[in-house]
Amino acid sequence: RLVSMTEMLNKAKENGYAVGQFNINNLEWTQAVLTAAQENNSPIILGVSEGAGKYMGGPKVVAAMVNALLETMNITVPVALHLDHGSSVESAKEYIDAGFSSVMFDHSHFPIDENVEMTKEIVEYAHSKGVSVEAEVGTVGGVEDGVTGGVNYADPQECLRMVKEGGVDCLAAALGSVHGNYVGEPVLGFDEMSEISELTGAPLVLHGGSGIPEYQIKEAIKRGHAKINVNTELQQQWTKAVREKLNNDADVYDPRKIIKPGFDAIVAKTKETMDIFGSSNKA
Ligand code: G3H
Ligand code: ZN
Fold first, then answer.
1. 134: domain CATH number?
2. pLDDT tens for residues 240-275?
3. In a mutational test of the pocket of ligand 1, which residue from 151, 232, 234, 237 has the highest number of ligand atoms less than 8 Å from its CB?
4. What residues contact 133, with CB distance under 8 A and at least 6 apart?
5. Residue 92, Ramachandran bin (φ over 0: left; ψ between -120 and 50: alpha; else beta)
């Protein structure tokens, strides 16, 4: 059975580790990250962007697929199914109605009054169904906005409003992280992290988790992050493995054989990432 993020994130924050959100793209991808979670005895958040949701046939198909896998794979670790960067009230409600146990409502590119007000509407709807909500304040840079480096730091008072008035369960406070590849080493606002964490008390969410060096990940967790989102890194590992297979085996034509190395690469990378985040053996 799917669970919301609330309990797993509060537990993570209390105990100084972070739960990974791993974005999924298809059946095999979902099987791979669930395999990693179960083998590592780790809680996991399955991230589904609106684009990926649409690609997989819509939120109902995704929820049915994930629920069936939890049963047939005998998954016993806590699993949340989470809409990533939900763009509208309608879309967030559609995903909740389809059976998602968590949603991110991302109105960060709107003025704070509107962001808080719309988020509050989603929170009321979501909480009445036991579903958790994440919101974003400030701007995560990178591909999300079609511009590289378009970072806009979260304002601490706006973060406080989002938690107190908006009532969210966790908060993505943008502090220098970027979706996709980093140009050089990431520069994260660690002082601001501590300030926002202490001010709001909410578990913080780090977007753009791919390509952040381990020591910075550990520092971010120390300073209040309980959830870290990873997408690009898994895609790159999958592509590398599948490309290698195609390059090294000119006779292969069975799609199942072509993408099997991709599956193995995702399992390995996800397990490694869970170890770094500290969520292994925390289920
Ligand atoms: O919401 C998704 C994440 O923030 C993923 O970022 O693709 O840079 O790992 P990433
Ligand atoms: Zn993100």
1. 3.20.20.70
2. 999 999 999 999 999 999 999 999 999 999 999 999
3. 232
4. 102, 103, 104, 105, 119, 122, 123, 126, 127, 167, 168, 169
5. alpha
Q: Count other C-beta atoms under 10 Å from residue 117's C-beta.
A: 14
| Distance between Cα 134 and ligand 1 center (Å) | 14
Ligand 1 atom at minimum distance from 177 CA: 8
Reported as type and span, the H/E element at residue 102 is: strand 102-105
Q: Is residue 283 situated within a structural domain? A: no
Does the residue 263 lie in any domain? Answer: yes
Residues with CB under 6 A from ligand 1: 23, 47, 84-85, 179-180, 207-210, 229-233
Task: Find out whether 136 is annotated in a ligand binding site.
Answer: yes
pTM of the shown model: 0.97
